[in-house]
Amino acid sequence: MSLFSKKQPEPTPEPTDETAEIEATSAVEPDGAASVGEASSADAAADAADETGAEAPAGSFDDVVAGYAASATPDAGTTAEFDTDDAGSGSEHDAAAAGAKPRRRSRRAIIGIAAAFALVVGTGGAVFASAHKTIDVDVNGEIRTVTTYSGDIAGVLEQEGITTGEHDLIVPSLDEALVDGSDVVVRTAQEVTFEVNGETTDLWTTATTAGQAVADVAGAGRDIQITASRSVDGRAELELPLVTDGPVVFEVDGASTTVEIEGEATLDEALVQAGLTLSLQDTVAVTAREDGTPVVTITRRSYEPSVTTAPIAFESVERETDDLYVGQSRVVQEGADGVTTSTFTNQIVDGVVVSTKLLRTEVTDAVAEITEVGTAERPVAPPAPAPSSGGSSGGSSGSTEPDPPASTVGGDVWAALAQCESGGNPTIVSSNGLYHGLYQFSVGTWQSVGGSGLPSQASPAEQTQRAQALQARSGWGQWPHCSSVLGLR
């Protein structure tokens, strides 16, 4: 029924607050406002919803808002329909309608407007909430909880001022979408020097400890280790911490010991916890077991000196002298061996000498033994003097005493006698200073046979001649001991 036709009188029940509601509708306007039929259809649907508890069919969001806004604000084209106590004529109904005021706005209109705005606010809040996220960011083991509106991993890292390099590990990847409750892990790569199968090489690793780095790099058939450098004060240093809260195996001095290390520990700190000390020459290498447990191998190295000696035999030298008879000799300089002294430095690894280096050599020359050999010819005994002849003249006669007979002993005997008395030394003097030369003359006896000066100052030939003269005069008793030894008397 059109709202612009008169309402026919009908029997009506007693008016109540629920039935005396104002139904406001939009009049058809030239500018395209909602038609009366559309408004009535909306009201009817709302009434049905109120009675059945079902929700009214929903149009587009803009349509709903526009419809409720139009019904909520009456304008010049809005008419109101009232319930009356009785059915009057059309003119009376029109007059009453013209003079009457609306009692109150439809509750359905108010509820519809509130629902429309709740839909707008609720939809925006849901979008806002879905953009806001709380995540955990783990950077090299340090975890922080951050809130962000970023849509991907790269955005939240940029927000937190976390820069990454091409070798860094980032999980999830930078271009992955970020959702609330995500965990983002960043491991900064570091270039570490390894020894791979005996050759030094630099490799990138995101491990946070040396044990993990070795375990990550190690592969089948590869010998991997990290050799610690030594600081000026003797500390052992690595480019990474050795371990964080875990066991470390120490292999040193022929034994293997496992020590539980507390907290994050450098190599030097782990050695302190294990009670181990290093000398300046010791070397330290880090390997790892398959489970990542670091193995610290300490090689004891030292350098110790050693000295060796080698004798140098002396030479024997003979030189001639006419102070001795042929066949006679004497040692005038005792020989002494020399020595070669060599000083070495020995490199000792775990108690075993692995290399030796000569530092210096010193030589003490030998002293030659010098022996003098006689070249003097032995004297020959002078012939015996001719016997003196006697005669008588003028009836008288006389006789003279013959000279003592000359010695007829051969030269070998005199050489043997001289050897026995003086060792064949013509210049020797007895310890008491009384006897001289080859035959140990006393000065008085020497002078008695025509000698002058000291016997030890005379030549060997003269000494022998005087001895022969003494023997011829006095016999072998002048040399009692040696003559007996030689069987001369």
UniProtKB/TrEMBL annotation:
| Ranges where the G5 domain occurs | 298-377
Which one Pfam family would you cite for this protein? G5
Ranges of compositional bias, category Low complexity: 31-47
Region described as Disordered: spans on this chain: 1-60, 74-102, 374-410
Which InterPro entries does the UniProt record give? DUF348 (IPR007137), G5_dom (IPR011098), Lysozyme-like_dom_sf (IPR023346), RPF (IPR010618)
UniProtKB keywords: Hydrolase, Membrane, Signal, Transmembrane, Transmembrane helix
- Membrane-crossing ranges are 109-129
The answer to whether UniProt assigns keyword Isomerase to this entry is: no
Is the keyword Ubl conjugation assigned to this protein? Answer: no
> Its family?
Belongs to the transglycosylase family. Rpf subfamily.
Put simply, this protein is called Transglycosylase family protein
Species of the source: Occultella gossypii
